[in-house]
Amino acid sequence: MSMKDKPEYLYHGSQYKLDLLIPQQAAGERDKDSMMAIYAAETMEEVIPFALPIRWYPDSPEGRRDFTCGDGKILLRYGSLDPQGIGYVYKVKADSFEKIDEWQWISRESCHPVEVMEIQVADYLDRVQFTEEAEKIRQQLYGF
Fold first, then answer.
1. Are 89 and 44 in contact (CB under 8 A)?
2. Running DSSP on this structure, what letter comes out for residue 136?
3. Tens digit of pLDDT for each residue in 79-131?
4. Rg of the Cα trace of the chain?
5. CA angle 18, 134, 77 (to 5 degrees)
6. What is the DSSP code string of 90-120?
């Protein structure tokens, strides 16, 4: 990929509001999804699942969460998602990022976001499918 194909900006999703994005140890299923890096994508849409505050259940060290995403949809297998919750999408300069697969970019350097957008879970709930187990957790925690 030549430099001119590199977009000027990329997007990163997080459930936390940060002033500085710092490389974190990712816990993906494949090596390239488990690097110590900041992960980003070329569109805001692609990072929405990572911006949604999907939490461990129970929200303690022995809790767990499990979700997959693709085609803009999220399947929540286990964990909780507060329907009133908020998440954050960060717009970052692409300078320090390198492309590692068809949609993911990584940076091993910290970076300051150019823009931080707050998103409401309620606006994206139609994209989330809950397994029976995750649905029970939702009912127990949020009553619907």
1. yes
2. H
3. 999 999 999 999 999 999 999 999 999 999 999 999 999 999 999 999 999 99
4. 16
5. 75
6. EEEESTT-EE-SSS-EEESS-B--SEEEEEE
Tell me the three state secondary structure of residue 43.
coil
In angstroms, rounded to a whole number, what is the distance separating the alpha carbons of residues 30 and 89?
Answer: 24
From 120, 141, 118, 117, select the one nearest 130 (Cα to Cα): 141
Q: What DSSP assignment string belongs to 44-95?
A: HHHHHHHHS-EE-BSSSTT-B-EEEEETTEEEEEESEE-TT-EEEEEEEEST
The strand pair at 73-78 and 9-14 is best described as unpaired
pLDDT digit string, tens, across residues 85-97: 999 999 999 999 9
Distance CA 63, CA 84 (A): 21
| Exposure string over 85-113, b if 16+ CB within 10 A, otherwise e | bebbbbbbebeebebeeeebbbbeeebeb
Of 17, 35, 15, residue with least CA distance to 25: 35
Residues in the chain: 144
Q: Is 140 helix (H, G, I), strand (E, B) or coil?
A: helix
First to last CA, the chain: 48
